[in-house]
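Feature request, filed as a ticket because there's no other form

It would be nice if the structure record came with a short human-readable summary line next to the tokens. Right now we just get the raw output. Example of a typical job, pasted below so the devs can see what we mean:
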Amino acid sequence: MKTVPLGQTGEQVSQFALGCMLMGTAADEKSSYAILDRYLEDGGTFLDTANCYAWWPDPSFRGGESESLLGRWFARTGRRDEVFLATKGGAWIENLDLVRDQPDLSVTRGQYEGAGGDTLRRALDDSLRRLGTDHVDLYYVHADDRNTPLEETLEALAGMVAAGKTRYVGWSNVRSWRLERIRQLADRHGWPAPVALQQQHSYVRPHPGTDTLSIVDDEQLDYLRTNDDVTLVAYSPILKGSYDDLAKRRDHHVMEAYPGADAEARFAAVTELAGELGVTGTQLVLAWLLHQRDPQFVTLFGPRTPEQYVAARPALDLALTDEHLARLATAGA
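Raw output as currently delivered:
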């Protein structure tokens, strides 16, 4: 399992990170433990979760299930010190009745707990209790909160670092201009600056004019090339399995940002090359992500079953040639 630098911290983290979002809910305890055990057996160390994971698979869930499962796994295995553990705060929803079965994402976002200082301090303490640990390695602001002064959020995060409750801080679902403002304020006040940026990123490109608040676009990639003290952590890299499932490609809500000829051309390029190489589209796209060097980043993969993890595992060993990479890079409309 290869590693990449985490910003300029001197820390090396697994290039292939394990997303634990559905552990304890859509992934039951036995399956989750099997995935975690296999991932560490393969040499992986980077685990990603959040306090709100995951209320949406079933009305019986409230959030916190993923962290609680990881806490039980740490207690069972004693392997907390072997992993780089990341969690997030800011997107917890207290009144889930307002958002369940709600198709409008803006309504859901309007119910997020936000990134106020007291809110994040309480959220991290709750996360540490569920995880059964005294600190996390990386703590993200899960969703950029424009209703709270950045100074308040950054000062609270600085206090968490000073207290030893998190080693590093990051941001997720944020535009580049806001991230730059965050970095400038951190530099001005001597507060810890974000070392990780978690955004959605895949081989297929968002349609021009799409709201890319949470999706990496060309401008954000350029920003990351210029500012290598921030490492991209790419979530939803396989777009919910759309590279191998035509029905999902046509109907899944994740595809709303990717309509049009360019996406179809990119999907076709994946299908063609995957067929030539005798691999799945998912394996090819994960391998393509792991081959990227400008910028180099972490790819976050969140399987629901041990079988899904095993099926993706060959991507780690799939060597793409310069010709393969050039074909994929030039595909599109």
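Something like this underneath would help us a lot:
The beta strands are 3-5, 12-14, 16-19, 46-48, 84-89, 136-141, 166-172, 196-200, 231-235, 298-301.
The first strand starts at residue 3 and ends at 5.
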